[in-house]
Specification:
It is elongated, with a radius of gyration of 12 Å. The strands form two sheets. The protein has a three-stranded antiparallel sheet with strand order 3-1-5, with no helix packed on it. It has one domain. By secondary structure, the protein is mostly beta strands. It has strands at 2-5, 11-16, 34-36, 46-51, 64-67.
Length: 69
């Protein structure tokens, strides 16, 4: 699974695996607009997208692409 910000605004994406999963992305304040999971566990994942705090503030919409294979 791959999650990536594809819009014109800087975003930070955070991905948390389902209960019992070994996957948890670092929630650092970096502007990481991408999260990759090589081997997904069954269940619901929680995706959080935030305005990147290290860039100029913006208002409006953003775009995120989620690819699962």
């Amino acid at each position: 699974m791959k999650v990536e910000g594809i819009g014109n605004h800087a975003v930070s994406t955070f991905l948390e695996g389902p209960p019992g999963s070994n996957y948890s992305q670092d929630m650092a304040a970096d502007c990481h607009s991408r999260a990759d999971v090589d081997s997904t566990d069954a269940g619901d994942y929680k995706l959080t997208v935030e305005e990147c705090s290290k860039t100029d503030r913006w208002r409006g919409t953003f775009k995120v692409r989620i690819t699962v294979r």
